[in-house]
Write a structure and sequence with these properties.
Rossmann fold, alpha/beta, six-stranded parallel beta sheet, Methylthiotransferase_N_sf, OB fold (Dihydrolipoamide Acetyltransferase, E2P), globular, binds S-adenosyl-L-homocysteine, binds FE3-S4 cluster, 13 helices, binds iron/sulfur cluster, 22% strand, Transcription Regulator spoIIAA
């Protein structure tokens, strides 16, 4: 996400060259990060180069998230800021185009143009392959364009292969959308029905990523472990089979996937964690609640004990696997006993890192119209207690890695002079004092110290 203070100055305007600039702000999940990179790829042939200065940009894109109320409101406040930039640039004779992409665009469509008539393009997550055409159209005629239908064609058939090495760790979307309709969630409405990309297109993209230096690929999908893509043999492949195929790419040393649903955590995938060294010992498996009553109200389709069983199997298959999850507190109808059940599940499982949220009612979802909403102060208190316990577990997990020697994939420079930073197999951030020539390599590091959100170590 790019966010910073904006001061009106024309120092950044690049009038002398014919180069066009693009500024993109991304909120939300990793799939939005992937999508933003693909929009950049799409606009590159039109001569657009990315700038991190909004006031320099001919095209401003907000790639938005609708998951909670706060995420959506951020978009409108950011638009107010971009409006000023657009007006200022227009005064200087630099036409500027504002596009709103992503899940808010999909959900709010026309409302965005009503609230922010200076927006030129509103496009959903399934139509962004049409962005170059839309930009040319807006340039030709005045007036805004909305494209939020779910097109029959797949955007993936129209996206160029990623052009530049954006790092040693890359995202690759393999599945999109969701048919599960959890009571609280907008994703089935913003991303549409569940669709898996064919295996071959994923292999081609992964092979290309490796050829530009990528060492770690995170396979993405709203329900990534529900993946069921057409294989080169004409059969349907599941995620375990896809991961096995990808692990045969010689340059690819690490494979991850996110986000998984407990209902789709089948034995073949659990066994893949035992059998494939490239599959990292880390799994983000959102449980949301530890109360059967609330899990049912959420329409999650599993019980707390079924979740515990999956964790047991995973730990048998891969004893050192680190577990991560998402939690929602204060879903309609959640009482103190339900909340205590969630706390107990957390104590039973022991997570290495997590995300937790207060329930936020979302338009069009089943839970939003429930008569049993939980008071805001109650949600605050539960979230605080939950996060304190999760924090303890995260600290404990990190503490347990101190003294161990583990392979770290270095991905960039650290914040301090002479530091480089990388990732452990368990998705911990690790930094060491080391030469930048190590960036892009996986090296053995002894972990010396656990800090608040990272570890420090020494190269061995
Ligand atoms: N597909 C994933 C989650 C996608 S949304 C899954 O099935 O778990 C990411 C996370 O946002 C969810 O796991 C949930 O914890 C949180 N979330 C979704 N809707 C929410 C809402 N209305 N209020 C609060 N948190 C929400
Ligand atoms: Fe949302 Fe549930 Fe689908 Fe996850 S599985 S994206 S939480 S509806
Ligand atoms: Fe947000 Fe859409 Fe992702 S709502 S979490 S950007 S799928």
């Amino acid at each position: 996400m790019v966010q910073r203070d904006f001061t009106l100055t024309n120092a950044h305007l690049d009038n002398e060259t014919s180069r066009r600039y693009l500024h993109i702000i991304t909120w939300g999940c990793q799939m939005n990060v992937y999508d933003s990179n693909r929009m950049v790829d799409l606009l590159r042939p039109l001569g657009y180069k990315v700038t991190d200065k909004a006031e320099q940009a001919d095209v401003l894109i907000l790639n938005t998230c609708h998951i909670r109320d706060k995420a959506t409101e951020k978009v409108f406040s950011e638009l107010g800021r971009l409006k000023q930039i657009k007006e200022y640039r227009n005064q200087l004779g630099n036409p500027t185009l504002i596009a709103v992409a992503g899940c808010v665009a999909q959900a709010e469509g026309n409302i965005i143009l009503q609230r922010a008539p200076y927006v030129d393009i509103v496009l959903g997550p399934q139509t962004y392959h049409r962005l170059p055409k839309m930009i040319l159209e807006v340039a030709r005629q005045s007036g805004s364009i909305i494209e939020t239908d779910f097109p029959v064609e797949s955007k993936f058939d129209f996206l160029p292969i990623p052009q530049e090495n954006t790092g040693y760790s890359a995202f690759l979307t393999i599945q999109e959308g969701c048919d599960k309709f959890c009571s609280f969630c907008v994703v089935p409405y913003t991303r549409g029905a569940e669709v898996s990309r064919p295996v071959q297109t994923i292999l081609d993209e992964a092979t290309h990523l490796c050829s530009i230096g990528v060492k770690e690929i995170t396979l993405l999908g709203q329900n990534v472990n529900a993946y069921h893509g057409e294989g080169p043999d004409g059969n349907i492949w599941n995620l375990a089979r896809l991961a096995e195929k990808l692990s045969s790419l010689p340059e690819l040393s690490r494979i991850r996937y996110t986000t998984s649903h407990p209902r789709d955590m089948d034995d073949s995938l659990i066994n893949a964690h035992r059998d494939l060294p490239a599959l990292m010992p880390f799994l983000h498996l959102p449980v949301q609640s530890g109360s059967d009553r609330i899990l049912k109200a959420m329409n999650r389709g599993h019980t707390a004990d079924e979740y515990r069983k999956i964790i047991d199997k995973l730990r048998k298959a891969r004893p050192d696997i680190a577990l991560s999850s998402d939690f929602i507190v204060g879903h309609p109808g959640e009482n103190l006993k339900d909340f205590e059940d969630t706390m107990q599940l957390i104590r039973d499982v022991q997570f290495s890192q997590t995300f937790s949220f207060k329930y936020s009612p979302r338009p069009g979802t089943a839970a939003a119209i429930s008569m049993h909403q939980v008071r805001e102060e109650e949600k605050d208190a539960r979230l605080q207690a939950l996060q304190a316990l999760l924090r303890e577990q995260q600290d404990q997990f990190n503490q347990n890695t101190v003294g161990r020697t583990i392979p770290i994939l270095f991905v960039g420079k650290g914040r301090k002079q002479g530091q480089i930073t990388g990732k452990s197999p368990y998705l911990q951030a690790v930094h060491i004092q080391g030469d930048t020539s190590l960036i892009g390599r996986e090296c053995q590091v002894r972990i010396d110290k656990s800090l608040t959100n990272s570890l420090s170590g020494t190269l061995v």
